[in-house]
Every structure is written in C-alpha cells, then in structure tokens.
Write a structure and sequence with these properties.
single chain, about 240 residues, alpha/beta, 3-stranded antiparallel beta sheet, 7 helices, about 30% helix, globular
C-alpha cells in the first residue's frame, strides 16, 4: 500500500462512514502537507503506554510541549487524569514560562519530541535552570534518533507514532527502565520484514495493508514481559 493508496482508502471511508464512534487525527505531522487527511481512530482509544509510563515514574505534573496540531492533548489529559497527575499545555515558543512552571508548579515530566527536548533542555542548561525529572519522547514516523547523553539518563519513555495518536512502537516498563531505543511492536500492528512495512489489525477502521516505513525493524531478543524486543535501523 502506497501513501496515495492509503489516502484513497481514507477518502472512501470518510465518504461512506459518518460514525460518531471515530475521531479524526492528522495523517501527517506537517500541517502544510498537501496530502493531509483525517485518519479515523476509535473514540475509545486511550494512550495506555503514556499512562503506564506516568504511573511507573510517579509523575506529579506533566508538561505537554508537542505541537497542538498533533491533537494529543486530549489523550494525554486522560492519561494524566488516570495516573493522578495534572497537565500543563505549554507554548513551545515560550520557554521562559515553561521553565517557571517546572520551578514553581511541581512539573516533573515533559512530553515532547526529540527536537524540542534538545532545545528546551539546552535552554534550561544555559540559564542554569531546573531540568524536569523525566521526559516522554514521541518520535513522528521516523527512526528514533540517538538521544544526547544529558537527556538519555532522564528519558522515562520513548515511542514511535505512525500518525499522531497512532503508536506503532512502544515500551513496556522493562524497556523504559533501560533508557534505550528498544521497543515492542504495538499490538494493533504486525510487521513485514521483507517489505519493511506494517499491517494494521482489525481495531483500526481504515486498514493499513503493508504500509511502508522509512526504516526497518529487527527483532533483537525476547523481553521479560513476554514480547519480542525490536530495534530500528536505516534502510540499506
């Protein structure tokens, strides 16, 4: 399935289905993408991997610095509510206010992407300001980059999303504790190693059939949780 074929399937689904049981999320992390569509996911979808990470690290206050266009603030709010943490949605451009929120509001976890994490962490370091105790990093449909050493020790979780709110790689508590770019394939997907592509399972309204990724996934061993551990690498 090419991206154009996926867009055609989404257009067909949108025309034939007006079900209130689904909400739409962007098919791109770029608001200027000319092929942008709304990808349907269930209203019941919960960001369980994020909630589990917040619980395991006993997060008190969570700062969201992901672009609002990604529409992850509602799933994150629900994850925070279930885990007992409060949420503060921060303007990515106002790092001074964000730094003050960490200092005075007991915010100990920041949810963002790697580019913002590096910029914000560097800002805090240059100003000799308090760093958050932990970070949750969302990689947008790209191979997870190696984190700078000053960040890797504080990262509480990493995951890769195909589209915002559609995680394809996630971490269990064991992998989170290793603080490395090692993952489990999300249960909503299966991997085709020959085609470097993923196929969705029945839970997702629009089927992704061998949809290619810009990187490959390799099984590197079993996890104590019982699932296979995978690592990402560039396509040769």
């Amino acid at each position: 399935m090419t991206h154009a074929e996926l867009i055609a399937e989404i257009d067909k689904f949108s025309h034939e289905n007006k079900s209130p049981a689904n909400r739409m999320v962007p098919t791109s992390f770029d608001p200027n993408d000319p092929t942008l569509r709304g990808f349907p996911i269930s209203l019941d979808w919960k960001w369980t991997s994020c909630e589990q990470a917040l619980r395991s690290q006993n997060s008190v206050g969570v700062m969201m610095r992901l672009p609002l266009f990604w529409q992850l603030e509602v799933p994150l709010y629900k994850a925070c509510k279930s885990s007992g943490a409060f949420i503060f949605v921060s303007d990515r451009g106002n790092m001074t206010l964000a730094a003050e929120a960490i200092r005075i509001a007991h915010i100990d976890c920041v949810v963002t992407d790697i580019e913002d994490a590096v910029m914000f962490s560097n800002f805090l370091s240059k100003k000799s300001l308090m760093q958050p105790r932990s970070w949750i990093i969302v990689h947008p449909r790209t191979m997870p980059r190696t984190l700078p050493s000053h960040l890797s020790e504080a990262v509480g979780a990493q995951e890769v999303h195909l589209f915002p709110s559609v995680p394809i790689l996630e971490q269990c508590e064991i992998l989170r504790s290793l603080r490395q770019p090692l993952f489990h394939i999300h249960s909503d997907f299966q991997w085709d190693a020959e085609l470097h592509a993923i196929t969705s399972r029945a839970k997702i309204p629009v089927t992704l059939d061998r949809y290619p990724l810009p990187f490959t996934i390799t099984e590197v061993g079993p996890c104590e949780c019982g699932r296979a551990i995978v690592a990402c690498s560039n396509l040769s």
